[in-house]
Amino acid sequence: MWHLLEPLHALVYYAPEAYEEAAALGYGTAERWPSYFAWRAAPLGPVGAEEATAAFHSFSPGTVARYVPEGWRIAAPDAVLAARTRAVTRAYAALLGPEADAPGIAEAATLARRVAEAADPAGPLSAANAALPWPVDPVAALWQAATVIREHRGDGHLTALREAGLDPAESLVSFAAIGAAPPEVFASRGWTPAEWEAARSRLAGRGLVDGAGVASEAGRELRAAVERRTDELAAGPWRVLSDEERERLAEAVAPLWVAAIGSGLLPGVNTLGIGKV
Questions:
Q1: Where are the domains of the chain?
Q2: Lowest-pLDDT choice from 66-70, 120-124, 203-207, 229-233
């Protein structure tokens, strides 16, 4: 379900309609980060850089500080949230056409909402998104449910990383070490080469990577344990649905998944755990 729902959520960071809504608010759109931090942090309210850094985890403090709280001087979080909903609705209307109003989308929204409402907040991002009012539009409601579910999983993932003794930079270095994505893909998180090498050195001192930064057997086992723990923490809300309902949700969400993956907007090499067909 994570692989089905993650692309639905992630489209908001890449869709042209989202950039249009961000530009209308006053955000720069030459790169995606001004709108990314606005869209994702808005549920938290007008937070400062320190709180946002803790919630986002993998971004360097310097990167977060470039956009938060500066973004709230451009547009208030409530205005960002309204624009976010418009962006999602417009993006999927453009991709799906008449299928955006199909009964299956409303059914998927209802099922996914049940899962989202069963998720005990695991951290600030899941709690903040869970507290938002539900959109009336089925596509927007499904997107919001997917967002609550993915942020719940993400907050649990941060718990698993901390339990494994991995700090933010080490989390990325160890992920790159198992071949999840090339190290340069992680450069957008803003860690300097010196900070990256220092994290690699700390992992090498624990026997988790070799001199070239490739994961050792112990490093792979640790990352596998992190993923298992993430799955365990994410599993609870899904028990609110029967096996048949989970199967039905997977079937009903397929048109949006196909639209998101097939749009060509999502990067093929990324840190999201998603790929392109």
A1: 2-161+228-262
A2: 120-124
